[in-house]
C-alpha cells in the first residue's frame, strides 16, 4: 500500500522539483519593450535622441518669459480675477512667498533641463563617433542656458558637474555661491563656443554664435564688461546676422528663425496638450495666457489676458517708433478699427503683449490655448547689439561703437537717422537701457535688466531692495533639503 | 468512522434487494418541529441513477419503490444534510438541524477548506441569501455593513463605476485592494454577476498568509454556485425593474439670490454691479433639476442546477441594464453574463471540476468628477441663464472673467459627449482532485482570466464660445486592450488521525503569470462631424508631421510560490496551524527577488472543556489567536529599472522630433511591503445558538511601505515631461481596532421569525515612520495652485488633512490689527475675512501654521440588519453607518460669477452678523486657502436596502415551487450633516482621498421584482 502511494506521489514531487529548477528562467525575464537608462549611449542616434530630450525643456521656459515681464514695470498680471493663478498675481504685486507653484515650476523644470543635459555628459566617453563633439557642445550650451535661468531666479543653486542629481543630493550638496555657478556656466559656454558649428546643423539647434551671445549676456550680468564686449563683438563681426527690415514682421510666423534670430526656442501646434502637464506642451503656453480675453475678431485668437502691458509702457515709445504698435496692441483702437469684440479681465489696461499673443491660422490641436506655435525669440541680434553697446559704454571701452550699435537698432525702429543718439557716458547708459526696454518689450528681459542695473527699486512698485532681487527657493525644496539649504534673504 | 458505518449500511441496503416498498414521512426542523417545505429527498441507486422527490407544503414526502435498508438523503438550503436508513414504509419523521446551529459548515480558507468550528483565523462570511436580499448591482456592495472590518466605498454613483474594498483600514498609500480568489484562481470582483455567487469568505488576519506576498491587504475568496449531487433540476429566475433618482440635491442659490450676492461681491471688490436691477429674475434655471433625471434599470437572471450521483451542474445567464441619473443612456451600464459549472466524478478517486464565466460589459460615461464634470457645471452655471435660447439651441455660458473658461452648459456637455467601452471577458478554471490513497488528495488546477476591451471617444468639433472644451478639429480616439493571466496550482493535502490527534498537511506550488498589451490610436477630421462616422477607418486626418497618433504598451509579470501548511488539533479542542510561503516575483529588484512569509494560528474550544460548565446559556466558546507576516507586491512594474520612457519631443527644422528621455526614476532595492498581523478573537454561541457573537481585536503593522512617485526634490529632474519620482520602501503604518458582530435569530411562532444582525468596527490608524528625510509625504489637491492638502506623517492617520485652522471671522478693523498678519497667504485680511490661528505663535501667519484638520478615515463603521418573516411576508432592512471621518468641500469654483451653495446667504455682512461664513468679494482674499472652513464632518447613517416581499406557493413540485414578489428600495435615506452629494463617495486614494470634487451621487433605487423557483 505504501509503495503504491509512493509511486503515485512521485510524479508530483518531480513536478515540484522541476518547478524549482525553472525558477530562475521563469522570474528573470527581461522587461518588455523598454530601454534601460544605465545601458544607453551605444550609438550616435542614442546621443542625438538624448539631445532632443535636453532641448525639450526649453519649451518650459515660457513661464520664465511671462514672469520676467509680470514681475517688471512693463505689465500687470491680469487674468480673470485677483486670484487667477495666484502665484503670478503675487509676483506682480511683489508679495510672493516661498509657497508659489509657478516659481516651483521654474525651479523643477530648469533642473529637469540641467539633468537631461548632464545625462549626456555623464556618458560622454561611452561611445565614439564623428560629430560627437558637436552634440556634447550643444548639451553644454543647454546646461548653461538652464543654469543661467536658475541663477537669475534663485541665486545660489546646487551643482553636480557631469552627472545627474540623485535623490538625497538635496540634503548633502550645498547651494553653490553665485560666482561658482557663473564659473560653471562660463566653462560650459566656453566649450560650446569652441566646439559648436558656426551654422547650426538644423534650424532650432544652437550655433557657436548662440553660445557667444549667451556668454556675452552672462558676462554682462556679472558686469564683466570687457569680456562681454569682446565676445559680443566677435559675434557681430562674423557678419552672420542683420536686423530685419520690418520690425512687426519678426513676430509673425513668417518671421520665425529669420535673419535676426541668434537663438530661438521652437514651438509647434502639431500636438495636443493639457493643463495637467504644461511642460509637456509642444506649444508656447505663454501665448495663450497672454491672449486677448474673450476675443472674437480678425488676425488674433483669444486667450486668458495675462501679462497685460501698462499704459506707461505703451507711452514710453516716441512718436514714429514702429515698435510701439508692433509690440503692444491697443485693443480698444483695434476693436474700433476692425469691429472685433473682447472681454474685460482683471487689471484690464486696454493693452496686450502683441509679440506673443495668439495668431489666427495655426492648427491649434488639443487645447488651443496651450498649443500656440509662436517661437520664443530668445536671443535676437538687436539684443546682441544693445548688449554690446551697453558693455562698451558701461565698461568705458568705446562710447562711439556703443552709439553705433544702439543707433542701428533705433534706425530700424524709426526708419530714419533722425532719431540717432549722440550722448556719451552715463547719459548714453540711460539711453541704452531705455532702448533695451523698448526693443525687448514683452520678451521677458525687463525684470532682470532692472535688477542687474540696480534700477528695480524705483521702477517696480513694492520692490524691496535686499529681498526681491532673488526669488525664494520653493518651500518644498527647503523642506526636502532637511536643513541643508537656507532660504534666500528676507523671505 | 461515520463513513464506514454509512458504507456498511449501503452494503446492507444492496443486499436487501427485492424488499421494495413506498416510504412516506415528514421532514421537520429539529429545533421546533416546524415542517420544512421543499426539502430534497433522494435515493441514489447503485447504478448511478437517482430517484427523488420534494417535501410538500406540510413537509410530507412520499417515495415509491424504496428497497429495505436503503439510505435516503435529505438536503435543504440552510440546513445540514441528513441521511436516514429505511427499514419500514413509515411514516418516518426526519429532523434536520438548521445551519445556524451548525458549526459544521465548511468554509473555504485558501488551498483547502475547514469546518467553521475549527477555524483559527478571523474570517467573515457572506452567503447567497444576503446577496439575494441586498440585490447589489456589483458584488462589492454586498460586503458593506454585512462584514465587520470590511469597508466599501464607491468611487462614483455612475452606473458601472468602480468600488474600493478596504479590509481593516488603509495600510499603504499604494494598492490597498484585497486579493480576490474566485474558485481558487486569482481574479477580480468587478465583472461578476452577484447572483452567481454561493459564498464570499473574507480572510482578515494571518490566516491569509498562505497567499504570501499578495495577501497583505486581506483575501476575498469567492465560491460560485454549483449543483448538488442527486438533486432534481432546479430552475430559478430572478428579475427586477428599478427606477433611480439622485439621493441628494444641493441647496443652490436661485436667480434672484444669485444676482444679489454677485452685486454685493462686486461692490466689495470696488467693481460695477453686474445686476443693477435684480428684480424680475425670479428663481431662474435650476440646473441640478435639469441635469438629474429619473433613470430606469432592469435585471434578469436565470439559473438551472442539479446533479446525479456522479455529476453536478449549474448554468446561469444574466442581463443587467442600468441608465445613469445624469445623462440617461449617455452614462449607461449593461452587463450580460453566462456561466457553466460542472463537476464530474471521473472515478471514485478522481474528480473534475470545470467552471467558466463569460462576461460582456458595455459602459458609456460622462465626465464625472472634478473641474469640467457635468455636475461641476450644474453646480456652477448661473441660474440666470436659460437652458436653451429662443432658437432652441443650447445657451452658451458666457466667456466672461467671472465665469471662467471651464464652466459650460452642462446639458450641452451631455449632448456632446460620445464614448463607448466594451469588454469581453472569459474566466474560469479546471481542477482535478485525485485521491491516490485514503487521506491524501492531490489537486491540480488551472485558473485563467482573459479579456479584450475596446474603447472609443469622439471629440466633436464644436465651440462653447472660447471655453477650454472647444474642439477645433474633430477627432476619434480608439484603443484595444488585452489582459490575460493564469494561475497554476499543484498541491497535496494529507489528512491523518492518530488517537485524538488530527493532522492536515497541505503543501504545493502556485505559478502566476499576467501579461497583456494595449494599443491606442487617434484619427482626425471625422466625416460629417458625427458619432456615426467616428472610426479610425473613416477619420483619415493625422497630426502635423512629427506628431504621434498611436501608442502602445505591453507587460509580463510573473510570480512563483511554494507553500506549506500544517493544521493540527487534539480532540477537536486545541487547534494549531502553521504556514510558510516562499514567493519569487518579477515585481522586485534583483537584490530582493525572494520573500518568505511565516504565520501561526491557534484556537481553543473552551466550551469543550470539562471545567467549562455552561449554565445552559453558553453553547459554544472558542478563543483564537493568530500572528503572521504577509506581503504586498502591488506596485508599478519594473520599478527597479530606470527606463527611457520619458517624453522628449522638440522641434527641429519646423517639424516635431521625438527623442528619448529618462522616465520614472528607478529603485534597484525595491521590495515587497511587509504586513505583520496580530489578531485575537472569540466566537460565542449563546441561548440555544440563538445569539452568536464574534469579537476580534487586531493590530496590523505595515512595514517597508511602498510609496510610488514619492515626492522628491525637483533637482532630480522628476518634473520633466514623462518623468516621475521612484517607488520607494519608505514608511510604516499601523491599524488597530476592534470588530464585533452579533447575530440573533428567534422564532416566535411557526409563522413569525426574526433575525437581527449588528456589527461594528473601530479603527485607529497611525503612521509610524516615513523615511524620506522630511517625515511626511504630501498628496491630493485643493483649489487651483494651492499647497497639497493631504499628508502622510508620523504620528498622524494616513492621508490626514493639513491646512489652516480658523478662529471665526474678523468682525472689525481692530480685530484685524490685533491679529498676526495673514498677508503671506495671499492678501491682507479685512473685516469679514477668516481669522487663521497662529499655530506656531511666531506672530505671523505662514504655511508653517498649518495643522491637522481632520482625516478621511472613519473611527467606527457599523452595520445593522433586520429580517422578519410573517406567514408569506418577509421584511428586510440593511443599514450602514460610518462615523468620525471628515471630507473636504472642493467642488466650488472660486470664481466671482459662479453659482454658490445657499450657506453663503448666512455670510458676514457687517460686525456681529456671523462668525462662520466669510464675506463675499471679487477682490483678493485669503479665504480660499485650504482651511477647516472647507473640512466637514462626513459621518453618516444610510439605509442601504429596505425590502418587503410575499411568497406564493405554486402547485408544482409538491408545492415546493415558489414565487416571491417584492418591492425594494436602495439608499432610501442618508442621515448626515455633510453638505455635498454623497458622504460615502471617495476616490479611494490613501493620501488625497476624502476630497470631494463633486462626486456623482449614489442613486436612490426603487425596485419591484420577483423570484421564481421551480
From TrEMBL, chain A:
It comes from the Bacteria. It holds the Pfam family SusD-like_3. InterPro entries: SusD-like_N, SusD_RagB_dom, TPR-like_helical_dom_sf. GO terms for cellular component: cell outer membrane. Keywords: Cell outer membrane, Membrane, Signal. Residues 335-453 form the RagB/SusD domain. Residues 48-220 form the SusD-like N-terminal domain. Belongs to the SusD family. This is RagB/SusD family nutrient uptake outer membrane protein.
TrEMBL record, chain B:
GO terms for cellular component: cell outer membrane. Residues 116-219 form the TonB-dependent receptor plug domain. It is a multi-pass membrane protein. Pfam families: CarbopepD_reg_2, Plug, TonB_dep_Rec_b-barrel. InterPro entries: Beta-barrel_TonB, Beta-barrel_TonB_sf, CarboxyPept-like_regulatory, Plug_dom, Plug_dom_sf, TonB-dep_OMP_SusC/RagA, TonB-dep_OMP_SusC/RagA_CS, TonB-dep_rcpt-like. Keywords: Cell outer membrane, Membrane, Receptor, Signal, TonB box, Transmembrane, Transmembrane beta strand, Transport. It is found in: Cell outer membrane. This is TonB-dependent receptor.
